[in-house]
Design goal:
This protein has a two-stranded antiparallel ribbon. Helix content is 78%, strand content 4%. It has nine helices and two strands; from the N terminus they run ααββααααααα. It has two domains: 96 residues; 125 residues, Tetratricopeptide repeat domain (Serine Threonine Protein Phosphatase 5, Tetratricopeptide repeat), CATH 1.25.40. The longest helix has 95 residues. It is mainly alpha-helical.
Length: 261
Amino acid sequence: MLRFIRLAVMALAVLSIPPAHALFGDDEARKAILDLRKQVQDMEKRVQDMQGKGVDLGGRMERLEGAQRGSLEIANQLDALRQDIAKLRGQVDQVANELGNAQKRNKDFYTDIDARLKKLEPSSVSVDGRPAMVDRSEQAAFDAAIGQFRSSDFRGAAVSLQSFIGRYPASAYAAAAYYWLGNSQYQLKDYKGAILSQQTVVDKYGDSTRAPDALLNIAASQIELNDRRSARATLQRIIKDYPDTEAAKLAKERLPATATR
């Protein structure tokens, strides 16, 4: 390109020079040629400058296009990463939710197991003023039977207490169970049965605080059976064996009623 421009300028310059002998002398012709050469050189330099700038602009354009393509790739990669992160967050939330549900199920399970074990574990109670260990089911059965007696369901109480004695013969409530069984039988006018139940309290649990009261109830049943002699002997036993009890005081008060005529 540069060579073509150079040739074109020189050709124009030669064609534009008039015959030396017509207008100029040799010196003037030489000067004109030198001026034209300088103009050609200036034009060549300008063309070279323009070509250099064109190359530089092209490089910059290529760099810009490359940077743009790189930015687009980075943007696409970032978008893909955002999508992956969103999926991972969703998975994390799901796992966290499942973990929370599993922990709740485990907690409920162990709470239920603990509650069941507590029902089976003996508990410390005071029976007739003495500490004792009883099963929860044992205590519940005894309390239910006593509840029947207090609500005047004497027949139901008698059945429940007999069942309790059969299930828990070595229970700390055994003396109390026989005592209340005897009371239930007395209310049902089963005086012989009442005497047998209360006598069990005296014979098997003589150190029980219920023993003097059991004797007092035996005496009451004997009076109902019109066995005043036996009733008097029972009341005298209370006064002798348990002198400092409330039962002994009551025995003294009832003793005159047992006098035989």
